[in-house]
Inverse folding.
């Protein structure tokens, strides 16, 4: 398996519990503070159920894609000003009718500063989706599109994908910066 993917699968950067966030814009503030520019994320319901996985796009500011989707979750005091990110609301309305934003946490794997391309980020997102689907025996409702057949999941990574706050050490890599662990502040 590609050592980049193996390292990142073993190293969750952050987990944001939306119970502790009063306005969606706070996600942007955290994104700026922790430089979340290139990342893969997982929206979780009641910690263990995966709603959807995603990857940063051409974000206009750090954590923008996460912010745009989280803003559509039920439970905020305001509605989003844009339709961008609305697809998560469609998933919630169809599959999680009782969901409130306080039931959601977002795991983030930060690639910023490692020099990975968007295609490499997509491989990592596919790894998360494919491995979780294998373990859970059900497709993740927010990720029903076809996954690249080029990616073959490795059994070594399987349990990390669905575990929460697992403690593992990254593979040493000369060019990798030390990652900032921010989940403890949430």
């Amino acid at each position: 398996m590609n050592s980049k993917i193996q390292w990142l699968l073993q190293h969750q950067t952050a987990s944001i519990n939306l119970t502790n966030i009063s306005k969606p814009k706070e996600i942007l503030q955290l994104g700026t503070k922790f430089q979340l520019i290139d990342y893969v994320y997982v929206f979780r319901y009641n910690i263990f159920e995966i709603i959807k996985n995603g990857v940063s796009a051409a974000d206009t500011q750090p954590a923008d894609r996460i912010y745009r989707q989280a803003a559509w979750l039920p439970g905020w005091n305001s509605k989003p000003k844009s339709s961008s990110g609305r697809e998560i609301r469609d998933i919630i309305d169809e599959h999680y009718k009782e969901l409130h934003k306080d039931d959601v946490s977002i795991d983030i794997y930060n690639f910023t500063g490692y020099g990975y391309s968007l295609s490499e980020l997509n491989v990592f997102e596919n790894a998360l989706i494919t491995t979780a689907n294998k373990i859970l025996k059900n497709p993740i409702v927010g990720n029903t599109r076809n996954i690249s057949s080029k990616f073959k999941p490795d059994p070594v990574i399987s349990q990390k994908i669905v575990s929460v706050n697992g403690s593992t050490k990254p593979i040493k890599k000369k060019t990798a910066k030390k990652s900032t662990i921010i989940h403890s502040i949430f």
